[in-house]
Amino acid sequence: MSKVTKPNIKESKFIETLQYSFTKDELQDKAQIMAEQANLKAELEDQKKTAMSDFKAQIDKCEADFTLAAKHYRAGWMMRPVECIKRLNYDSGMVEFIRTDTNEVYKSRQMNEDERNIPLPMDEPGKDAPVQ
Question: What DSSP string runs through 50-117?
Fold first, then answer.
C-alpha cells in the first residue's frame, strides 16, 4: 500500500473587492432604480425652483417694505387718504378745506360765483310748507 502524503498548503479566507458582472435581473433592477431616481430628481428640482421663487418673492417684499419705511423715515411724512370737510364760509367769501384727523385748515381759496349763492333752506319731507 502506498502512503498518501498531504501537500504542504495553508488556506485562509478573506474579502477582496473584485469585478462582478450583474445578471440580467440585477441589471433590470438597476434600470428601475435609475428611472425612479431620475423622476425623483426632476420633482425635487421643481420643488427647489418653486421654493426659491417663493423665498425670492418674500425677500423682495421684505426689501420693498424696508425701502418704503426708510423713505418715510427720512422724509418724516407720507401721502395717504384722509377724510376732509369742505367749508363754505359765506361771511368771508372763502372755501376752507379741513382735515378731520387734525382739524387743520390745509387749504383755502376764494369762493367762485356758483359757491357764493347761499342755498335756500329746504322743507323737511312730510311736513306742510308754510303758506306765504
Answer: HHHHHHHHHHHHHHHHHHHHHHHHHHS-------EEEEEETTTTEEEEEETTT--EEEEEE--HHHHS
Report strand pairing: 105-110 vs 94-99.
Answer: antiparallel
Measured between alpha carbons, how far is 35 from 91 in angstroms, rounded to an integer?
89
Neighbours of 95 (CB within 10 A): 16
Cell 425701502, residue located = 67
Question: Quick check: 3 pLDDT over 80?
Answer: no
Mean pLDDT, range 31-58, rounded to an integer: 97
The per-residue pLDDT for range 74-116, each reduced to its tens digit, is: 999 999 999 999 999 999 999 999 999 999 999 999 999 999 8
Contact 122, 113 (CB under 8 A): no
Determine how many CB atoms are found less than 10 A away from the CB of residue 31.
Answer: 10
Amino acid at 68: L
